[in-house]
């Protein structure tokens, strides 16, 4: 069915590649600072990163690590799921409008914030032109993503793909991305 090429997980404590730890987070760090730390540690160069919301940053970082040294990205698709979607950013925006005496709505809060933006940035960065979808799900259930990707393989002739789960809310973040080939 699938040949798994690489698996990247990111949690509040560490980053693993194929179940081997490659990075450990400092304790008691907020999500924004933790993700910036990863960006700098892996010496990434993508200025749009700093405009993204934390969900997009998490997905972008996960994909950068996952796709490092992958050359052939032709006929590749992406299927992701998230539980919190853009709730973290929505909550931050609500803070800017809730006090009528100190009302300062900021549209800049919504730059790079929709859940499908992360997939768009990954596709642009890595020139991935296949199908891509972001599902809002109750929990991380990778087997559902395998089934959906199997449909794309059968219907669209996809040869490689990335399935995964991204979630980021209230200083808790989780990513699990799997790169596979047919």
Give a verbal description of the structure.
Strands 3-2-1-7-6-4-5 form a 7-stranded mixed sheet, sandwiched between helices. The mean pLDDT is 86. It has one domain: 3-Layer(aba) Sandwich (Peroxisomal Thiolase, Chain A, domain 1), CATH 3.40.47. It is 35% helix and 27% strand. With 182 residues, the chain is an alpha/beta fold. The protein is built from 5 helices and 7 strands, in the order βββααβααβαββ. The protein has helices at residues 31-41, 54-67, 87-97, 115-126, 142-156, and strands at residues 3-10, 14-17, 20-24, 76-82, 132-136, 160-169, 172-181. The longest helix is centred in the C-terminal third of the chain and has 15 residues, at 142-156.
Radius of gyration: 17 Å
Strand fraction: 25-35%
Number of helices: 5
Oligomeric status of the shown chains? single chain
CATH architecture: 3-Layer(aba) Sandwich
* Structural class by helix and strand composition: alpha/beta
Work out the helicity level: 25-40%
Strand order of the largest sheet: 3-2-1-7-6-4-5
Q: How many domains, in number, for the residues?
A: 1
